Structure to design on (764 residues):
């Protein structure tokens, strides 16, 4: 197949049945072929952090082995790198493995927002912040697609929990959707043009996303210009015809004999316009056309990919705490390094479900520490606990004894696989109690304890945090995580990750707490735009570790923040630029993630006290300085107004702050930004105050009713105290009030003039 002409010829020659087959796939992982017309089938496979190509026995639970592939850090980890270049390199490697296995589309990445740390699938998602999620996913998609294969951006949209995921209605107001849940999708679609977008299982405000024309067509294609294929999540289609009409091109896996029949019957019965089917068929043919020919290039260099996985895992780990500079470990010959915790020997580095990769190999932290520890250091191990079981006294006593004789102890803790997975949500944020108890006994025996965590989403560091001087959060960081941990603990590399999600003090503090996971088929996004740090900050709550936080083995100073506002919002040229200098004031090289947050100081609507609007990672040697530069647009200062159905920038002061986390802002500047007043057109229900605030309408009122020598309107309308009381009444509703010299005819005439029709407006 070559060229548009060919696609058009095939569309003309396909029978109705063949067209229906093309929009439903042929089996669990393949689209349908039409051999008669030389249309081959293409293969898709999970994603997102490694290729999961299943040669036989298709499933999506991960139970059946797939071909070996590199398991890179999961999105939860990758996001903590705050490094789009790294995400792009991971994407390139994923693309190479996908291409070499003759898979056309890698099913990922997932950019759903971490609305609650309880979501069982958070390990597959990037962040609680849409900018961070969007920037990293966009880079990753560009990396994968640079290898000539496609991606599937998922799960579009508002799929933020696993509980009842196929049926639940996410009840979300439009402002929240636009500001929090859609922007990461929007960025990836507009910047990286993924070949496909995968619709989510859930309903949005009552309507299944697979049948949602607003999401699948109006926003995705109409507003963002998406031209690829919309594929269903596996099993998300309940009405094939309605889904087709809404803009869903490919149903996966196919409900053979049911979906194709429904499409054919609907066209024959005249209830589905064949043009709608043709539109999706064309998109499918385009997908097949751009899919690569069978691979005949060199084999994948799995060693190089493993080395990349290790490098990336190093940059993803977040050093949460490092009192007294316990890390990196300072071990002289003759020292004993105690290693406690079964995960040091049996690491957990990826999550369960459809993303589970059959690895090419796995680094075991204990082995890696043994290999990298300086000559003459004894690396001694005690498992301490069984990851899933209750406290085992013998194991705990053995760990305690090791702690007593060790110079320093590293305790490996984390969530067992049964705690978090695709398919269900967690019910609490605690580590298993057996782990906490062993840690307590170890820390009492030896206070020089560093905790290494492996988990897919936040765990509470209470009650144990005060007992340990150092905590390194590694997330689920892929098959080379063990080597990366050894590099970081022993100091051949410096931690540079920052939190992509807040670690709360209590589950009850998380903004979605009262509305998660919903009931009776609905989950109300009651916290609105106040998700993650936006909510914690608005409520002024203490957090265990804030969004953006992460230590290194060095220190940084910020200076010289400059913020410039140029252009004019009225003609679309408004731009805000910011620069600041950062100096590495320590003795080691390190990377600082400079974060820029904005607050609309004069907002008339409820807005978060700070929102991430830019970030950049600087690599600085000791004593070295670098410049962070940021470019902001009007959109970065705006909120989504439901009333005007668009982004609104309100004139006024904005605080622009830079710092090392959302709670560690080092420098700030307040700038004034001018913008034309935006208000919905006045109508019959517009209030007195809205009339007075609108310069044209206020002038009209003054002209119609006259003013006294002080310029005040007559009667109540000119009395400031009265306006305080009745300013929120519709103007026309005041016509019957004493001392209001106004009648309906005058209001209608003014409305007619304002709308430019000259005619009156009927009451609404
Ligand atoms: C998951 C998707 C995945 C698909 C195919 C679904 O259950 O939600 O993320 O790509 O299965 O395995």
């Amino acid at each position: 197949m070559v060229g548009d002409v060919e696609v058009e010829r095939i569309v003309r020659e396909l029978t109705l049945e063949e067209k229906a087959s093309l929009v439903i796939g042929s089996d669990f992982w393949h689209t349908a072929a039409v051999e008669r017309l030389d249309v081959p089938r293409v293969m898709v496979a999970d994603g997102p952090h490694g290729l999961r190509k299943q040669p036989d026995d298709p499933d999506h639970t991960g139970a059946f082995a797939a071909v070996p592939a590199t398991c890179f850090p999961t999105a939860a980890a990758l996001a903590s790198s705050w490094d789009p270049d790294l995400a792009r390199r991971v994407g390139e490697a994923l693309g190479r493995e996908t291409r070499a296995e003759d898979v056309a589309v890698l099913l990922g990445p997932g950019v759903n927002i971490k609305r609650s740390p309880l979501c069982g699938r958070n390990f597959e998602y990037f962040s609680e912040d849409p900018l961070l999620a969007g920037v990293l996913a966009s880079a990753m998609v560009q990396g994968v697609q640079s290898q000539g294969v496609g991606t599937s951006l998922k799960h579009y949209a508002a799929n933020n929990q696993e509980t009842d995921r196929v049926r639940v209605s996410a009840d979300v107001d439009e402002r929240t959707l636009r500001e929090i849940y859609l922007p990461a999708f929007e960025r990836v679609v507009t910047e990286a043009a993924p070949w496909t977008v995968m619709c989510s299982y859930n309903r949005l405000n009552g309507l299944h996303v697979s049948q949602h024309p607003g999401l699948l067509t109006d926003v995705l294609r109409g507003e963002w210009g998406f031209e690829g294929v919309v594929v269903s999540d596996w099993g998300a289609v309940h009405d094939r015809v309605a889904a087709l009409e809404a803009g869903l091109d490919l149903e996966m896996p196919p409900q053979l004999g049911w979906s194709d029949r429904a499409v054919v019957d609907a066209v024959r019965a005249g209830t589905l316009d064949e043009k709608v089917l043709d539109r999706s068929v064309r998109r499918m043919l385009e997908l097949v056309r751009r899919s690569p020919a069978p691979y005949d290039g060199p084999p994948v260099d799995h060693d190089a990919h493993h080395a990349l996985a290790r490098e990336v895992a190093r940059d993803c780990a977040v050093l949460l705490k490092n009192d007294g500079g316990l890390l990196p470990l300072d071990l002289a010959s003759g020292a004993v390094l105690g290693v406690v915790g079964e995960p040091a020997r049996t690491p957990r580095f990826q999550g369960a479900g459809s993303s589970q990769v059959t690895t090419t190999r796995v680094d075991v932290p204990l082995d890696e520490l043994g290999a990298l520890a300086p000559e003459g250091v004894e690396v001694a191990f005690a498992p301490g606990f069984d990851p899933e079981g209750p406290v085992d006294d013998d194991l705990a006593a053995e760990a305690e004894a090791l702690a007593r004789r060790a110079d320093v102890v590293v305790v490996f803790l984390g969530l067992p696989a049964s705690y978090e997975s695709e398919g269900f949500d967690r019910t609490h944020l605690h580590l298993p109690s057996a782990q906490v108890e062993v840690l307590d006994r170890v820390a009492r025996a030896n206070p020089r304890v560093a905790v290494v965590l492996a988990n897919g989403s936040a765990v509470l560091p209470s009650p144990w945090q005060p007992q340990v001087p150092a905590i390194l959060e590694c997330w689920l960081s892929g098959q080379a995580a063990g080597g990366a941990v050894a590099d970081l603990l022993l100091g051949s590399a410096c931690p540079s990750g920052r939190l992509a999600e807040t670690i709360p003090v209590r589950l009850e503090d998380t903004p979605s707490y009262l509305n998660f996971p919903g009931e009776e088929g609905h989950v109300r996004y009651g916290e609105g735009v106040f998700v993650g740090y936006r909510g914690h900050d608005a409520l002024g709550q203490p957090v265990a570790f804030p969004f953006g936080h992460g230590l290194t083995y060095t220190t940084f100073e910020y200076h010289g923040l400059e913020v410039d506002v140029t252009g004019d919002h009225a003609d679309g040229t408004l731009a805000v630029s910011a620069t600041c200098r950062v100096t590495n004031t320590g003795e080691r090289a390190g990377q600082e993630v400079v974060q820029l947050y904005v607050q609309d100081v004069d907002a008339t609507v409820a807005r978060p006290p700070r929102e991430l609007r830019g970030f950049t990672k600087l690599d600085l040697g000791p004593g070295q300085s670098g410049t962070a530069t940021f470019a902001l647009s009007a959109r970065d200062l705006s909120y989504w107004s439901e009333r005007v159905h668009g982004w609104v920038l309100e004139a006024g002061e904005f605080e622009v702050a830079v710092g090392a986390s959302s709670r560690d802002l080092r420098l700030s500047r307040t700038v004034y930004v001018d913008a034309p007043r935006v208000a919905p057109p006045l109508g019959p229900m517009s209030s007195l105050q809205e009339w007075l605030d609108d310069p044209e309408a206020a002038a009209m009122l003054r002209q119609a009713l006259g003013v006294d020598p002080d310029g005040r309107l007559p009667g109540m309308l000119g009395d400031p105290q009265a306006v305080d009381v009745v300013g929120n009444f519709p103007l026309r509703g005041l016509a019957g009030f004493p001392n209001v010299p106004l009648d309906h005819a005058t209001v209608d005439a003014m409305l007619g003039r304002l709308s430019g029709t000259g005619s009156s407006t009927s009451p609404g």
